[in-house]
Amino acid sequence: xxxxxxxxxxxxxxxxxxxxxxxxxxxxxxxxxxxxxxxxxxxxxxxxxxxxxxxxxxxxxxxxxxxxxxxxxxxxxxxxxxxxxxxxxxxxxxxxxxxxxxxxxxxxxxxxxxxxxxxxxxxxxxxxxxxxxxxxxxxxxxxxxxxxxxxxxxxxxxxxxxxxxxxxxxxxxxxxxxxxxxxxxxxxxxxxxxxxxxxxxxxxxxxxxxxxxxxxxxxxxxxxxxxxxxxxxxxxxxxxxxxxxxxxxxxxxxxxxxxxxxxxxxxxxxxxxxxx
Length: 276
Fold this sequence. Notes:
This protein is of the alpha+beta class. The chain has three domains: 1-106, no CATH class; 127-199, no CATH class; 228-274, SH3 type barrels (Roll), CATH 2.30.30. Helices cover 72% and strands 9% of the residues. It contains nine helices and five strands. The protein has a five-stranded antiparallel beta sheet, with no helix packed on it. A hairpin with a 3-residue loop joins strand 2 and strand 3. The N and C termini lie far apart (137 Å). Pfam families: MS_channel_1st_1.
C-alpha cells in the first residue's frame, strides 16, 4: 500500500502551481490591457490631428482629382486622402502598442506575428502610393491619347484611350504588388501573353478596317504642303475653291455644291491648280 502515490499531495502541488502561475500571469494581463488602452488613445489622437492637418494643407485636392477618374466614379466611392493616411497611421500605431502588449505577456508567437504585420505596413503604404500615382498617370496618358486620336479623326479614339489606360494601370498594379512583397513573375508573364495577343488582334483588325482613314492621314503629310485655302483647283470633275484642309480631307466649294474630297485622291488623281 505504501507504493501508491499520495493523491492528495499531488493535487495540492498541482493546485499550488496553477495558483502561482495565475498570480504571476495576472499582472502581465493587466499590463497588456493598460498598454493597449494607452495605444488606442494615442492612435485615436494622432488620427484626428493628422486628418485635420492633411486636410488643411490641401492633400484632399489630389483625392478630388482621383474622384474625377472614370474608374473611380464607376466604383461609386469617394477618395479622401487625409482620412486614408490618418487611418493607416492609426492602425500602425495600434500594431506597435500591440507588439509591446504581446511582449509583456511573454507569448513569442503573438509577438512575432505582430512584428511581421508592423514590418508589412510600410510596404503596403508604398504600394498604395505607387498605385495612386499610377492611376493618375494612366488617366493623363488616356486623355492625351484620346486628344491625339481625335485630332487625326480616328473614330476609335476613346477605345484606344481606354486600352492605354488599362495597360498602364495593370502594369502599375503588378509593380505595386511587387513592392508589397508578393511574387508577380507568373502574373507578369500571363499579362504579357494575354495583352500582347489582344493588342495584336486589335491592331490587325482595326488596321484593315481603317486602312482608308490611315491612307488619308499618311497622304496629308505629302499633300497638304502643296495646297492651301483659297486656291482654285480641279480634281477629276470637281472644280472650285479650297475652303478647308484637315488631316483626312479637302473641302472644295463652287457655285453649285460643296465637295469633300479624301486626301488619298490627291496622290493618284491629276490635280489642276489655277492661278488666282
